[in-house]
Amino acid sequence: MEEKIKVQINNLAKIYPNGDGVKNVNLEIKEGEILTLLGPSGCGKTTILRALGGFLDVTEGSILINNEEVTHLPPEKRPTGMVFQSYNLWPHMTVEENLSFGMKLRKISKNEIKRDIEKMLAIMSMSGSEKKYPNQLSGGQQQRIAIARSLLLKPAVLLMDEPFSALDAKIRMQMREELKRIQAELNITVVFVTHDQEEAMSLSHRIVVMEKGLVAQVGTPTEIYDNPESKYVASFIGEMNFLELEGEQVAFRPEDVLICKQDEGEHIGVIQSVMLLGHYASITINTGKHLVKAFIPRNKTQNIQEKQTVSFTLNKSITYKKGA
């Protein structure tokens, strides 16, 4: 079955007066996928999201949703829903009043509003909370209600701007799992913004890595982790070691370092630290020029001690030309 393209972004540019912004953005977002815009602060990911939602005028380029041009439409005329980092719930309204507000503006019948809210609260695992006020809910519950409010308006695309970053780590992981479940259940298209690589890796069908206003790479989490196209992407996703060998940069993951006896490996160094991290250990090796991190199973650490000279080989590596 052919995948349907839900959003088409063509040659998009948004340049701010200070020269920052994004340019040459070309993306196709498929129906029913979670596409994550990932990068450090100021790389342009939120600019793209806000342009998609109609909160920013674009400098050039076009945005199509369901094959219809929306580039110059205001937010309320676009088939998009936005979920922010701050939940933006009205504190003086109950959950039910928060959820029904936008639906009433659309002149949806009372019976349909009641039925849709009940159904959506069940999907969100929040049944029975209709009469509660936002301050009676936890952060995670408030964010669920904010997501429900957007989804009740049946957007073609749900836009999410760092929605879980105000939550603590455990709740954040639960919310990621919840979002994946809800997204699969409703087959919604989600564009998600985060600077957290772990969040991007765990949530996304595809990731767009942003670098200084440009798209550095687009791919599945596996493609981006295993085959980063540039040193920037390699250093941004997951842990990565770099060695300079004969004028080239060799990049390799800590799990691809094989520690051997002193005379059996290709590279030599001294163990600087051994840190046990649950089922595996993180070993730092000082080669004299570089510090190399290796992850090894905990049961293989018995003969490894700090200040010991060892050698190591690489199971897998990627070579980048200097400056690439």
Automatic annotation (TrEMBL):
Family matches, as Pfam families: ABC_tran (PF00005)
Sequence ranges assigned to domain ABC transporter in this UniProt record: 7-237
UniProt keyword list: ATP-binding, Nucleotide-binding, Transport
Residue ranges the record marks as coiled coil: none
InterPro entries (alphabetical): AAA+_ATPase (IPR003593), ABC_SmlMolc_Importer (IPR050093), ABC_transporter-like_ATP-bd (IPR003439), ABC_transporter-like_CS (IPR017871), Mo/tungstate-bd_C_term_dom (IPR008995), NA-bd_OB-fold (IPR012340), P-loop_NTPase (IPR027417)
One GO molecular-function entry: ATP binding
EC number: 7.6.2.9
The protein's enzyme class: translocase
Lineage top rank: taxon: Bacteria
Stated name of the protein: ABC-type quaternary amine transporter
Species in which this protein is naturally found: Jeotgalibaca ciconiae
Upper taxonomic lineage: Bacteria, Bacillati, Bacillota, Bacilli, Lactobacillales
